[in-house]
Amino acid sequence: xxxxxxxxxxxxxxxxxxxxxxxxxxxxxxxxxxxxxxxxxxxxxxxxxxxxxxxxxxxxxxxxxxxxxxxxxxxxxxxxxxxxxxxxxxxxxxxxxxxxxxxxxxxxxxxxxxxxxxxxxxxxxxxxxxxxxxxxxxxxxxxxxxxxxxxxxxxxxxxxxxxxxxxxxxxxxxxxxxxxxxxxxxxxxxxxxxxxxxxxxxxxxxxxxxxxxxxxxxxxxxxxxxxxxxxxxxxxxxxxxxxxxxxxxxxxxxxxxxxxxxxxxx
Length: 266
Hints:
By secondary structure, this protein is an all-alpha fold. The protein has one domain (3-262). 76% of the residues lie in helices and 3% in strands. It contains 11 helices and 2 strands. Strands 1-2 form a two-stranded antiparallel ribbon. The termini are far apart. The model is unreliable at 1-8 (pLDDT under 50).
């Protein structure tokens, strides 16, 4: 088989190859995250990047803890966001295959994915700094859960209101229509693919950032909570009437916030 034949064969199976790669990436991230959560349940200490960043000691962390926190959040974002990003990435691969068949320039799908991951890496850094700050202010428990009903209630309320905002609607709309997004925002060349990945990642982060902030409500290492948010993010993007789900969840979160805050005086 010639090199050209090998390329043609790979392109014909691009959907399977890309889906397999995304699946492996997500599964590895989930397994690593579950392993960390299990170790924390057993030892009471979370080991991230080989460094203890959470445990019975609630004293402020040194600045060096931000890096393992960042790595923990980055792996979590890969595990949580790759499933909902898969339709967009697969659509990008499909368009690339069509362009190859038409003997037009095409680029590796990995560049689009890289742009997407750059955005979520930036979000992970912000989340890590936020967690480091809240831990220093004694607002988080050893299990990385809010110890302040007011903080938890505020996060729930803001997340609930955000579900109804035009910002959420606009960002989510770009994530729900992969083909339309790529046709409108297509950029040529490797830099173009990277830029499209960054742009899509920005819309994705724009519609999901407050849901991710809710990890501080039930515990950053609470795997059931992580799985629930992952499923919600996916359903918002692929459900036929995602706006009903979005509004329903928003109302539920607002009601939950009222119950949490009211619980301080009951």
